[in-house]
Specification:
Blueprint: H1 2-28, H2 32-38, H3 45-63, H4 68-91, H5 100-115
Length: 126
C-alpha cells in the first residue's frame, strides 16, 4: 500500500507542479492571455506578477528535498491562491469554465499534501 501511495503522490504532485509552475511563470511574465484572464477580476497588473512569482517559488519549495516547514507554507499558499481564484471569479460574476482549473488544483494540493512521504512531513516528537 505504501508504494501505491508514493506513486500517487508523485503523479498528483507532478501534474500539480507542472501546471502551477507553468501558470506562475506565465503570470510572472505577464503574458497577454493571462492578463486578459485577470481583467474581469479587477486586480491590478502588478498583482499578477506577484502571484506568479509566489507560485513558482512554492512549487520549487514543494519539490526540493528538505525544508519541511517551508513545504507546509508552500502547500498552504498554493491552496489559498487556488481557492482565492475560485472565490474571485465567483465574486466578480465571472463564473465560467475559469473556476474549474483552480478548483481541481486546490484538490490536487490537498491530495499531494496528504499523500506526501514521511521524509517530507513535520513529525511531532512527544
Amino acid at each position: 500500500m505504501e508504494k501505491r501511495k508514493l506513486i500517487w503522490y508523485w503523479i498528483i504532485t507532478g501534474i500539480l507542479s507542472f501546471c502551477i509552475f507553468s501558470g506562475g511563470l506565465a503570470q510572472a511574465m505577464q503574458l497577454k492571455g493571462v492578463v486578459q484572464g485577470f481583467k474581469p477580476l479587477g486586480y491590478p497588473n502588478y498583482f499578477i506578477s506577484i502571484i506568479g512569482v509566489w507560485k513558482v517559488l512554492g512549487v520549487i519549495a514543494i519539490l526540493v528535498p528538505g525544508f519541511k516547514l517551508l513545504k507546509e507554507w508552500a502547500y498552504a499558499g498554493i491552496f489559498f491562491a487556488m481557492t482565492g481564484a475560485v472565490i474571485s471569479h465567483i465574486a466578480s460574476n465571472d463564473v465560467s469554465v475559469q473556476i474549474i482549473a483552480p478548483f481541481v488544483f486546490a484538490i490536487f494540493t490537498v491530495l499531494s499534501w496528504y499523500l506526501r512521504p514521511a521524509n517530507r512531513k513535520i513529525i511531532a516528537v512527544n
